[in-house]
Design a protein that fits this description.
By secondary structure, this protein is mainly beta. It has one helix at 55-61, and strands at 26-28, 52-54, 63-69, 79-84, 88-93, 97-102, 108-113, 125-127, 130-134, 138-143, 149-154, 164-166, 169-173, 178-183, 188-194, 204-205, 210-214, 219-224, 230-235, 245-246, 250-255, 259-264, 270-275, 285-287, 290-295, 299-304, 310-314, 320-325, 329-333, 337-342, 348-353, 359-362, 370-373, 379-384. Strands 3-34-33-32 form a 4-stranded antiparallel beta sheet.
């Protein structure tokens, strides 16, 4: 079963962790299998092969196992995305089945197949109790409470990013190299903005009034959400596969042109650039004025978000920082293992081998619960002890 849980935000590929802890005391997971489906056409549960959990390793990380649950999908399908919220975990599958699991128990709250199995779904965006989910050509609004379809609109274009929801607008990229603004209340295209190159990452909200978007050709624009007018523009040599980041003064770009950038939102001035020898594909995060990112040359690095100065680096580990535990430990998913890393020094504190897991999600960056997506499509919840 093929699983791609990194398409929209991480692009993690065979990243390695030196000195990963080997299994020492292993038990088997259990599952809750009851479900209430919002659509009876979802016919099967994925293979329930037990996923082995090394409880000692998780104890060393400071976590305990809570449950293992199983999103629904048709036979032969695989998960494509998973998003964790405080009250639920929402998954999409390659057969267009969307499943909502209860975060407290792992039981299926509802599951439904949105379209033909050949249709692509993008990562959901949640606003209050509504999920906005784009397929190739349509935008769905789904109630997270019961799975009911609240609205379904054809957008008359081929979509290739998850949607950004700003008030009454849904914004997403299309394969026609345009940023597309769809008016939700009256269901029509409000405006579009043509870019010089393919759009590979979603637009990001800057201040509730404007958005940032970049093309694969390095065409960076800050646009008014109201009418698509250009506020700031600049160019770099490549685009971004991982999502851009913003704060109150800067937009940060992990770029395929082998650099990480910070640009001033107001005038497009380049504040700093961190060069590396390969495209930056792993999703960076910013917390308390520090960016945590991974590069081919330096491994996991901490960068002062204002100056661009490297505060520390650890070449023995690369990965995506999924959460911060107990105020001082970064939980880093490497593609093979989960590592606890000291946020002030970059020192590896403990690791847990995740036995070929497909991904890790957190429901909150600060002390969030962690959800491990297994290779056969199960989801295991771990909480801080």
């Amino acid at each position: 079963m093929t699983i791609d849980l990194t398409r929209c935000c991480v692009s993690l590929i065979a990243l390695s962790l030196l000195g990963a802890v080997s299994a020492c005391s292993t038990t088997q997971s259990t599952s809750n299998n009851s479900s209430d489906s919002a659509n009876n056409s979802v016919t099967s549960q994925p293979s329930s092969d037990e996923w082995s959990i090394n409880h000692d390793s998780w104890h060393n990380l400071g976590y305990r196992w809570e449950w293992t649950g199983f999103p629904l999908m048709q036979a032969g399908a695989g998960l494509t995305d998973a998003v964790a919220y405080k009250d639920s975990i929402v998954t999409t599958a390659s057969d267009t089945t969307v499943t909502c699991l209860e975060s407290s128990t792992g039981k299926v709250r509802w599951a439904k197949q949105l379209d033909r199995p050949t249709t692509q779904l993008f990562e959901p965006t949640r606003v209050n109790n509504t999920l906005f989910i784009c397929s190739d050509t349509e935008l769905y609004e789904i109630s997270i409470k019961n799975g009911n379809t609240l609205d379904r609109d054809s957008v008359h274009g081929i979509i290739n990013t998850k949607p950004l929801i700003m008030g009454n607008l849904a914004l997403f990229g299309t394969i026609a190299n345009e940023l597309y603004a769809f008016e939700l209340r009256n269901d029509f295209k409000l405006w579009s903005y043509k870019f010089d190159g393919q759009i590979e990452s979603p637009p990001v909200d800057i201040d509730g009034q404007s958005i940032a978007m970049i093309s694969a050709g390095g065409d960076l624009r800050i646009l008014s959400a109201r009418d698509g007018s250009s506020i700031t523009k600049t160019n770099i040599a490549g685009g971004s596969v991982a999502s851009m980041l913003v704060d109150n003064q800067s937009v940060y770009i992990p770029s395929t042109d082998q650099s990480i950038y910070a640009f001033n939102i107001n005038d497009g001035f380049r504040q700093w650039r961190k060069r590396t020898s390969e495209p930056v594909l792993v999703q960076p995060v910013i917390h308390d004025g520090v960016m945590f990112a991974s590069t081919a040359d330096d491994g996991l690095i901490a960068i002062d978000a204002i100056s661009g100065e490297t505060l520390w680096s650890n070449a023995s580990i690369q990965g995506w920082v999924v959460s911060l535990a107990n105020g001082d430990e970064l939980m880093v998913w490497t593609g093979k293992a989960l590592a606890a890393v000291d946020k002030d020094s970059g020192e590896i504190i403990a690791t847990a081998n995740l036995n070929d897991a497909a991904g890790v999600r957190a429901d909150d960056f600060i002390d969030g619960n962690l959800y491990v997506i297994t290779a056969d499509g199960a989801i295991a919840k771990f909480s801080l002890r």
